[in-house]
Design goal:
The complex is a heterodimer of chains A (331) and B (352). Helix content of chain A is 49%, strand content 15%. By secondary structure, chain A is of the alpha/beta class. Chain A has 2 domains: 60 residues; 250 residues, 2-enoyl-CoA Hydratase, Chain A, domain 1 (Alpha-Beta Complex). In chain A, strands 1, 2, 3, 4, 5, 6, 7 and 8 form an 8-stranded mixed beta sheet that branches. Chain B folds into 2 domains: 86 residues, no CATH class; 225 residues, 2-enoyl-CoA Hydratase, Chain A, domain 1. Chain B has 11 helices and 9 strands. A 7-stranded mixed beta sheet of chain B has the order 3-4-5-6-7-8-9, with helices on both faces. Chain B has a two-stranded antiparallel sheet with strand order 1-2. The longest helix of chain B is centred in the C-terminal third of the chain and has 20 residues. The relative contact order of chain B is 0.14. The complex binds zinc ion (ZN). The site of zinc ion (ZN) has 8 residues of chain B, from loops.
Chain lengths: 331, 352
């Protein structure tokens, strides 16, 4: 699974080849100018300009499938990066206290500046070893139950909740089915409509179907510019519809899974812009945007009285993406 | 009144889905052998021929081979009929060839192994509700192709054809009526309409069912059979999982009572939303119930699945469902449960 995913990512990032070529030339020139006395600053300057132009042209016109690959990029910031770089204080809380601790979801008490909250995040890791330990962000039922338990704690402590979504999907396995994968996700979705503190949801990479939605109900749902959110993976969709893996880019196109598409369908509340060339190119500034969104949104939500907050959360999902007036209303 | 179901032979609790791996192989071979069906089924991870759902099957060479070799059983998939009006059906659980008339007489329950075949939505309504009591609601709601989703045909065209074939507008039948005199709101997912998949209309109608139950102060009874979210509606379909749960949360808050009966098969986004979180979860014998489809799991993990994996009996043993109910006892049990739930909305208290 790991190798296949990595291969897919590499192949899917082929559109970056011209950018990569310029980047290589640039670093070579910079090395030369450092170890010699040659004045090549104007050449370097010209190359930098070419580079940013190449990035701009490429990234202003990504296909949905290319975006999926950016969302899956191995250098894209993941939960641990956010915890390390934008969260000032973090106490991890493990375990569902019933079955086990699922490492595919990290939960804990977090603080950014003066704002305290409960963090619930899919975890992918930065290295192959970590990725395997975290099961590539594919959670088991105990992961969803752990998330729910921590959300209950947040409710009791009157701490708002921030969830960071980044999963290819919930794990399809024998143990997962035995322990009620579907029921665990369903329970979370249902209960998140009754949690009496603000919930902010941000898709930071992959929003893989029910596995994403299992921590995806909130008062505001944002997606990063190059994340995706989909009912089924493009690969799975292509396999079912065309029985042909080659059609995966077509499936990505048909599914309308990009942040701008979903904003247009009014299924999300906003798109968080990424630095030019994607979050993997400038992780710190990408994460700074997320931090800004978290702080601003929590500030806004904490001013809303709890009853109204809950009613609006339900109404928002009850009418999500709906064409006004299409469906009858029972008061 | 529902048809009188004759009692069937004793149940073998182990019978639901043994030897699945060889069946998997057989099923996969079939898929290879068949040309792609225009408008492939919409279940998230279940593949199944829509037209074949209600057993338009017939004896084929493969079936005879399967009879000679019980290891080769079909899983979840009937052959499309090669002659009109197929007289014989193969049980997906035990592989027996069954005379169609006999199967129908027994309420689509396998006489050999008690496997409960998928029932078409209308047949389900007639079976469960008091005769003449069912008042259907919101029949006019129909799917829109908002993504202009195209595989071999446009989704909109596919919907049009399905509506024409099934003579109903969507996969969910919703209405009110009585079960042995007790008023209920009933929602039935019909597998013969695009694999019972949940798009905007199904999600909306489940939510409307919750709303109706809440405002009428009646119990909500749901029957599911579904491959999951309808991928032709993309994220609009995934979000129905949240929408239905929002409506269910409001019903719960108002003190409502809900019962869901999981029938064969129920998987994907339907299992992972409203179907799993009603107050009482029932299942029919042998029903395949899960998050991921068995084929997905088998191919992802490259392992043999344990016998009876994801069948109702397996889920009961793992503590995932409240009760398994045979079709002929369905009305009686539902009536019992409804009586026990009556106090939730101010029914009579126990007397000292
Ligand atoms: Zn049978």
């Amino acid at each position: 699974m790991s190798t296949r995913r990595n291969d897919t990512t590499a192949a899917g990032m082929a559109f970056e080849r011209p950018i990569k070529a310029i980047e290589a030339q640039l670093s070579e020139l910079e090395a030369i100018s450092q170890r010699t006395n040659l004045d090549i600053s104007s050449e370097i300057e010209a190359l930098r300009k070419r580079l940013s132009e190449a990035i701009e042209t490429t990234y202003s016109d990504l296909t949905p499938w290319e975006r999926v690959n950016v969302a899956r990029h191995t250098e894209r910031p993941v939960a641990s990066d956010y915890i390390e770089k934008i969260i000032d204080e973090f106490v991890e809380l493990f375990g569902d206290k019933v079955y086990g601790d699922d490492k595919a979801i990290v939960t804990g008490l977090a603080r950014i500046e003066d704002t305290r909250f409960m963090l619930i995040a899919h975890r992918k890791g930065n290295t192959t070893k970590q990725r395997m330990a975290y099961n590539f962000g594919c959670a088991h039922p105990e992961g969803y139950r752990k998330a729910l338990r921590k959300m209950r704690l947040a409710e009791k402590l009157k701490l708002p909740i921030v969830t960071l979504i980044n999963t290819p999907g919930a794990y399809p396995g024998i143990g997962a089915e035995e322990r009620g994968q579907a029921a665990a996700i369903a329970e979370n979705i249902l209960q998140m409509f009754s949690i009496r503190v603000p919930i902010v949801v941000i898709v930071i990479g992959e929003g893989g179907s029910g596995g994403a939605l299992g921590i995806g109900v909130g008062d505001r749902v944002f997606m990063m510019e190059h994340s995706y959110y989909s009912v089924i993976s493009p690969e799975g969709c292509a396999a079912i519809l065309w029985k042909d893996g080659e059609r995966t880019p077509d499936a990505a196109e048909a599914l309308k899974l990009t942040a701008p598409d979903l904003a247009r369908l009014k299924l999300i509340d906003g798109v968080i812009p990424e630095p030019l060339g994607g979050a993997h190119r400038a992780p710190l500034s990408a994460m700074a945007q997320v931090k800004k969104t978290i702080l601003e949104t929590l500030f806004e939500l904490e001013a809303i009285p709890t009853e109204r907050l809950l009613a609006e959360r339900r109404e928002k999902f009850r009418r999500t993406g709906e064409i006004p007036g299409r469906f009858p209303v029972i008061p | 009144m529902p048809p009188e179901f004759m009692s069937t032979r004793p149940t073998d609790p182990e019978s639901g889905g043994k030897q699945k791996t060889s069946a998997e192989k057989a099923a996969e071979k079939r898929v290879e052998a068949e040309r792609p069906i225009p408008g492939a089924p919409a279940g998230r991870e279940l593949e199944r021929e829509e037209e074949g759902v209600f057993g338009e099957a017939d004896v084929t060479k493969e079936d005879l081979e399967a009879q000679l070799n019980p290891e080769r059983r079909s899983r979840l998939r009937w052959k499309k009929k090669e002659m009109p009006g197929g007289l014989w059906l193969k049980c997906e659980s035990c592989g027996q060839m069954i005379y169609r008339k006999e199967l129908e007489e027994k309420g689509m329950v396998c006489p050999a192994c008690d496997f409960h075949f998928t029932l078409p939505g209308r047949a389900r309504v007639n079976m469960v509700m008091d005769e003449g009591s069912f008042q259907e609601e919101f029949t006019e709601l129909t799917a829109l192709d908002r993504l202009q989703f195209k595989d071999t045909v446009l989704y909109g065209e596919k919907v049009r054809r399905t509506v024409e074939r099934t003579k109903q507008n969507e996969a969910l039948i919703l209405g009110t009526g009585t079960i042995d005199g007790r008023p209920v709101v009933l929602a039935v997912l019909d597998f013969s309409f695009m694999g019972g998949s949940m798009g905007e209309v199904v999600g909306e109608k489940i939510s409307l069912a919750c709303d109706l139950a809440r405002t009428r102060r009646e119990p909500l009874v749901i029957f599911t059979s579904s491959g999951g979210a309808r991928m032709h509606e993309g994220m609009l379909s995934l979000m129905q999982m949240a929408k239905t749960s929002a409506a269910l949360a409001s019903l719960n808050e108002a003190g409502g009572f809900s019962i869901c009966v999981l029938t064969n098969p129920t998987t994907g986004g339907v299992t992972a939303s409203f179907a799993s979180v009603c107050d009482i979860t029932l299942a029919e014998p042998g029903a395949l119930i899960g998050f991921a489809g068995p084929r997905v799991i088998a191919t992802t993990l490259k392992v043999e699945l344990p016998p009876g994996f994801q069948r109702a009996e397996f889920l009961l043993e793992k503590g995932q469902i409240d009760h398994i109910v045979r079709r002929k006892e369905m009305r009686t049990l539902l009536a019992q449960l409804i009586d026990f739930g009556a106090r939730a909305w101010g029914g009579p208290k126990n007397r000292a």
